[in-house]
Amino acid sequence: MDLQQVVTCVCVDAGRERWLLDPLLPPNDATQVWDRLAQRPPTAVAVLIPDHMRRTWSDPKTKSLDAAVRRYGCRAYGPSVFDPDDGPPETCCASGCPPRTRSEPFLTSARCSNCRSSA
Predict the structure, then answer these.
(1) DSSP letter string, 16-52
(2) DSSP character for 110?
(3) Would residue 117 count as lying in a domain?
(4) In the chain, is it the N or the C terminus that has fewer CB atoms within a 10 Å radius of its CB?
(5) Is residue 1 domain-resident?
(6) Residues 76/88, Cβ–Cβ less than 8 Å
(7) What is the structure's pLDDT at 116?
(8) pTM higher than 0.85 for the full model?
(9) Structural domain contains residue 2
(10) What is the pLDDT of residues 18-63, one digit of tens each?
């Protein structure tokens, strides 16, 4: 399988919410990105599929989802399974089901997807 060299991380503003989808946090010296996120911090971060659990640029041991939650105190959502070679994030993630249409809400579970406790 050929993996793409370029990956995407998306920042979505929806009303009062700001979501980071499939986060790949940039190096510490990417001040333009960090300044923009500081102006309006994310309220939630979500990893949509296990393959998108990415490490930060600055610390290859830290998962971007964990770093975003520590930095901004936002909610975390993740898949119900994780890559067995990589393991789950440190952060307790609620599992979620993205909407199929614009009028449907993002449906979430109150159960943590990696430890099964209440999130």
Answers:
(1) TEEEEES--PPPTT-HHHHHHHHHS--SEEE--SGGG
(2) E
(3) no
(4) N
(5) no
(6) no
(7) 47
(8) no
(9) no
(10) 999 999 999 999 999 999 999 999 999 999 888 888 999 889 899 9
Specify if 119 maps to a domain.
no
Residue entry with tokens 């249409």:
101
- The helix or strand, by DSSP H or E, that contains position 102, with its residue range, turns out to be none
The sign of the dihedral angle between the CA atoms of 112, 59, 53, 98 is positive
pLDDT for residue 63: 94
Q: How many CB atoms lie within 10 A of CB 28?
A: 11
As a whole number, the mean pLDDT across the chain is 81
Number of domains comprising the chain: 1
